[in-house]
Amino acid sequence: MMKISQRSLGMQASPIRKLVPYANQAKKRGIKVYHLNIGQPDIETPKVFMEAVKKADLDVLAYADSNGWEPLRDSIAAYYKRMGLTYETEDIIITNGGSEALQWAFIITCDPGEEILVPEPFYTNYRGFAAPYLANIRPITTYPENGFALPGRSEIESLITEKTKGIMLSNPGNPAGVVYSQEEVRLLADIARDRDIFIIADEVYREFCYDGKSATSFGTMTDILDRVILVDSVSKRFSACGARIGSLTSKNRDVMTAALKLGQARLCVPTLEMIGSKALYDLDPSYFKPIRERYEERRNLLIEELQKMEGVLCEKPGGAFYAIAKLPVDNAETFAIWLLTDFEKDGKTVMLAPVENFYQTPGMGVDEVRVAYVLNTEDLAEAMRILDISLKQYPGRIN
Ligand SMILES: Cc1ncc(COP(=O)(O)O)c(C=O)c1O
Predict the structure, then answer these.
(1) pLDDT at position 88 over 80
(2) I need a labelling partner for 364 at 20 to 30 A (CA). Which of 49, 73, 210, 245 fits?
(3) Whole-number percent of the chain with pLDDT over 90
């Protein structure tokens, strides 16, 4: 009988995009919607990207190598060296965004039924990357009350079974904006070494750390490099989400051999975007300073305003461009929908991402939302004013 597979039926629809129809309807009614729900930076993509693409006067837009255009891989290796990571061109394969690299990381490390440990709340698409390959995510639960810090070694180790193939960490993290301490990163590295499992290091937000801090990269931990699979992307780093250029990097030859086979099976990634992305990776590191300052200013404003709101709990996050706020509401998704269907202030409303689906454990995060600070400070301030008013009017407000 013709019916679609169980595994495709089992896929989740993106919880981040789930509310889009409600937002579209609000917009049709003439309401201005402030998008705090999605990690699409508003920062201008550096001009060098388009300049490089325009200069590329190709007679034939041919297939590229399956492991990526070599000059781009060279430029990423040089970028890593500037960041203190000793990866060579041969350790790097170009992927269709960080997303494809993460999918491959699940395929390469897990057979069906095997597991990767991931601190929750986690970037909800991790589930979508794992599900088609019947890999499972086992959560390491963290809590807003202590800034989503990792639990101790014994608690993490108690989650490891014979099915556990690795630990995945987004650092700085999406959705909570956590920058894990050097001790936390080292702890995971020690556990991976002692229990002989992989580390999948999602460091696509590497440059977005505030308060003068930086995120410790697994790529600097030379004693475990054979078990590290490093995922990167131009999407957030250079505000080039539409380029769809990412990379998977590893010193482990078996991992790279498998990655190349996966690369060959989909031929290659787009040539022009690789040409543009090389110019991005060649930018001087000073490029990041003003961008970081802009995000830091937004974060400070956002957190200050959220902390002023009665009943709202929000610890100041150290990185990426997200924060999780615990709200005095019965259900954050119902509230987020209500904001789009039943509320407006001066013809405006805000769109938030409910966090429940960023947790794996049922019942967690029901009163939490993720707020992305990808708007300018003026819009962000107005969005906070509107959110404050809406919380006072919401019929499902508790206490
Ligand atoms: C933590 C994290 N990893 C990976 C990605 C994937 O990004 P892309 O496929 O655009 O590189 C995202 C995008 O939001 C993300 O937040």
Answers:
(1) yes
(2) 210
(3) 94
Distance 293 CA to ligand 1 centre (A): 21
Q: Among 40, 116, 120, 123, which is best to mutate for testing ligand 1, by the most ligand atoms less than 8 A from CB?
A: 123
Residue ranges of alpha helices (H) inside 83-227 are 97-109, 125-130, 153-157, 182-195
Topology of the domain covering 6-44+288-393:
Aspartate Aminotransferase, domain 1 (3.90.1150)
Distance 99 CA to ligand 1 centre (A): 6
Of 17, 235, 321, 324, best ligand 1 pocket probe by most atoms within 8 Å of the beta carbon: 235
Please tell me the pTM assigned to this model: 0.96
pLDDT value at residue 14: 79
Q: Partners of 242 in the beta sheet?
A: none
* Ligand 1 center to 394 CA (angstroms): 32
* Most distant pair of Cα atoms in the chain: their distance: 67
Using alpha carbons only, give the angle 112, 118, 123 rounded to the nearest 5 degrees.
100
Fold assignment, 47-286:
Aspartate Aminotransferase; domain 2 (3.40.640)
End-to-end Cα separation, the chain, in angstroms: 53
Which tens digit of pLDDT belongs to each residue from 243-263?
A: 999 999 999 999 999 999 999
